[in-house]
Amino acid sequence: MGIVQIAVVIVILILLVKPVGTYLFHVFSNEPNRLERWFGPAERGIYRLIGLKSTKGMSWKKYALSFLLTNLVLVIFSYLILKLQGGLPFNPSGTKGMEGTLNFNTVISFMTNTNLQHYSGETGLTYFSQMAVITMMMFTSAASGFAVAIAFVRGITGRASVGNFFQDFVKAHTRVFIPLALIVCLALVALHVPQTLKPAADVVTLEGSRQEIAMGPVASLEAIKHLGTNGGGFFGANSAHPFENPSPLTNVIEILSMWTLPAALPYTFGLFAKNKRQGWVIFGAMMILFILLLSLNYYAESRGNPAIQAMGIDASQGNMEGKEVRFGIPQSSLFTTVTTAATTGSVNNMHDAQTPLGSITPLALMMLNNVFGGKGVGLINMLMYGILGVFLCGLMVGRTPEFLRKKIEAREMKLIAIAILIHPLIILAPTAAAFLTKLGYGAVSNPGFHGLSQVLYEFTSSAANNGSGFEGLADNTPFWNLATGGVMLLGRYISIAAMLAVAGSLLRKKPVPETVGTFRTDSRLFTGILIGTVLIIGALTFLPVIVLGPVAEYLTLG
């Protein structure tokens, strides 16, 4: 039955890919369609309000600069709100302003679409901060990433330009995230997720003592938290909390919310490229990698913890430590895999409590950083590996490599090399540095191999802009706030700048006529090459540290 549960959700996701991908194409193609009648008047009003006089296309440099400056303004605004939240309205619990390094980490985390939480939402933030900063950043960071992904697709498919950032940014809000968030929010409210501005409820427990139960505008945050692949929870327990995720049905809604848009983008890419098979090839590679790592997690968690079995304790239900009984192993494993494949960071079970082999799945998905990904991250990274695969094949047969009828030359490969190498560098170097000082390894709660996994997971989650954590790490310290904040910045903006530069470079090139020797990238053979490229690069960079962490821990458990 567990496999049936998982299969049903995957089938629903596959059925949604084509209609959602087609809708996204109509949103961002800038071609006349019926959407203009519905959204055009409101968007033109927004353009006048922000002073946007022309929506003509930008160069990739201007697009990147617009993206960076918009993010910078939002960072400054959010930092001030969190610093001054103690004196602002909607603060029924009297929460004070946020400490400086934690404030820095939180603002960077949410602006980079990471949503790594070194705070607990119900005690560290006011209702106003949850809405004006956290929920607002969930919309804007997702829209920023979506805009960049579409710009990259326009560049490599030979459109007239990469587009206009501000037009894409507004459309992502008005036509995608706000309407979908409204629908998902109403569905969650109907399924008993709280949405209120009332203060915490004062209740009497069964033992006769009094307890305050935190509430707030939870449903609205949950909707964009998953649709925008953000992941930061209203409560510290995230989607394991019964107010955020009360039932198996809400669990499936949240899984599909964070998975559908990233999964539909390859089909959108196929429409931009005027070759739907090209989109399905990318989607197929993503899904094969996803199912392989999902199978590993489900197998490991279903078998249970060998150390507990060795004690003579019945573990026939699998490893239920850190999991909610209302979800069980199947929906916990699926949620774990989706949330790290889609770089969301939301959790409905504690990854720190997973078996050693099971914990490889979320780590590997973030290390590969391209299996569906967040808002466009997965598509961009998978296309990057696709270009690399074409280049390697070209070297093997002695032919100038081409991708979508554009020659791949030294400039593109240098930029792709930067994007590929920066990811392991900002994971492995800080992990090693953390063990050189008490400020780093002093936060580890579990010594030995698992302690290495805790530190590795924290930096991997930050670099991949995922935001989930092992939760066994005492990470709310100046060292960890600043270290992970820096990694999040590098993980977000260096790769985005490099890939926009690739798009700009390919945009300037003239298409090369197809010949009998042209290597087709819309075939099953290319799917295999793409998967092989991803796995080989991932193994070369991360396999040694995986062996030192989860694999070594598994072997010690026998």
Give the topology, please.
Layout: H1 2-28, H2 35-50, H3 60-84, H4 100-111, H5 121-124, H6 127-156, H7 165-190, E1 201-204, E2 210-213, H8 218-227, H9 248-272, H10 276-303, H11 306-310, H12 328-341, H13 356-368, H14 377-397, E3 402-403, E4 406-407, H15 410-434, H16 438-441, H17 449-463, H18 478-507, H19 524-557
Antiparallel strand pairs: 1-2, 3-4
Helix content class: 55-70%
Instruction: Please count the helical segments.
Output: 19
Helix and strand pattern = HHHHHHHEEHHHHHHHEEHHHHH
- Spatial sequence of strands, sheet with the most strands: 1-2
Q: Could you walk me through the main structural features you see in this protein, from its secondary elements to its overall organization?
A:
By secondary structure, this protein is mainly alpha-helical. The chain has one domain (about 1-555). About 65% of the residues lie in helices and about 0% in strands. It has 19 helices and 4 strands. The protein has helices at about 1-30, 35-50, 60-85, 100-110, 120-125, 125-155, 165-190, 220-225, 250-270, 275-305, 305-310, 330-340, 355-370, 375-395, 410-435, 440, 450-465, 480-505, 525-555, and strands at about 200-205, 210-215, 400-405, 405. The protein has a two-stranded antiparallel ribbon. It has a two-stranded antiparallel ribbon with strand order 3-4. A hairpin with a 2-residue loop joins strand 3 (about 400-405) and strand 4 (about 405). Helix 1 (about 1-30) runs parallel beside helix 12, helix 9 (about 250-270) packs parallel to helix 12 and helix 12 packs parallel to helix 13 (about 355-370). The radius of gyration is 23 Å and the shape is globular.
